[in-house]
Design a protein that fits this description.
Helix content: 25-40%
Oligomer: single chain
CATH superfamily of the largest domain: Response regulator
Strand content: 15-25%
Radius of gyration: 20 Å
Bound molecules: calcium ion
Shape: elongated
CATH class of the largest domain: Alpha Beta
């Protein structure tokens, strides 16, 4: 599914883009209203910020709606109820206030897509990505399988695994991980990260090794074939 993300705030856009990628969405990111209106698509849903550098997002919403039925979700720091009402009157399908979590945005996107295409056949088959011989991750469905059997992960365990497997073998700092998986602006203790790493090690030791690099962070390594004696 392709998402047109209209957002001029780079950290917000980058964190949302990465989050949506982790769940299997393709993100086309533009930073102005003009770029949004001239984007040729195709895309399945629009995430639209209201405070844009060149125009008011509400005008962009109206113009988009005049040209197409694509679902539009307004994402905005404006908490003013008027904006919400006007946005919906101008044709937006839903409204999410900042700060928001990526899961909330995805839930809203799925809801508006369902309403937009009530008779659409089920989503196209997703292709799980494979990591070594034993582990597969279906990002669209957020399902993890080990030797073909589904592994039950808590939501943050899944997010952490999805993040670390974006680039197997890469060293990720604790700050990068906290920022990507927990919150865009995390300054607190990172003990929760260790707890989640321990859970993933326990559940997936046959397929992956999560190496701790003292004072820096973690590196996920896919086990070669093997009988799962790593760790
Ligand atoms: Ca903005």
């Amino acid at each position: 599914m392709r998402v047109l993300l209209v957002e001029d705030d780079e950290p917000v856009a980058e964190s949302l883009r990465r989050g949506l990628n982790r769940y299997g969405f393709d993100v086309e990111w533009v930073t102005t209203g003009a770029a949004a209106l001239s984007h040729e698509g195709p895309y399945n849903v629009v995430l639209l910020d209201l405070g844009l550098p060149d125009s008011d997002g509400l005008d962009v919403c109206k113009a988009l709606r005049e040209g197409s039925d694509v679902p539009i979700i307004v994402i905005s720091a404006r908490s003013d109820e008027t904006d919400r009402v006007v946005g919906l009157e101008l044709g937006a399908d839903d409204y999410v206030s900042k700060p928001f979590g990526v899961r909330e945005v995805i839930a809203r996107m799925r809801a508006v897509m369902r309403r937009a295409q009530p008779r659409a056949p089920s989503l196209p088959e997703s292709k799980p990505a494979r990591y070594g011989a034993r582990l597969s991750i279906d990002r669209r469905a957020a399902r993890v399988r080990l030797d073909g059997e589904e592994v039950r992960l808590a939501p943050k365990e899944y997010d952490l695994l999805a993040f670390l497997t974006e680039e197997p073998g890469a060293l990720m700092s604790r700050e990068q991980i906290m920022e990507a998986v927990w919150d865009a602006n995390w300054f607190g203790p990172t003990k929760t990260l260790d707890v989640h790493v321990a859970a993933l090690r326990r559940k997936l030791s046959k397929a992956i090794t999560i190496e701790a690099v003292r004072g820096v962070g973690f590196r996920l390594v896919v086990n070669e074939g093997g009988d799962g004696t790593a760790l």
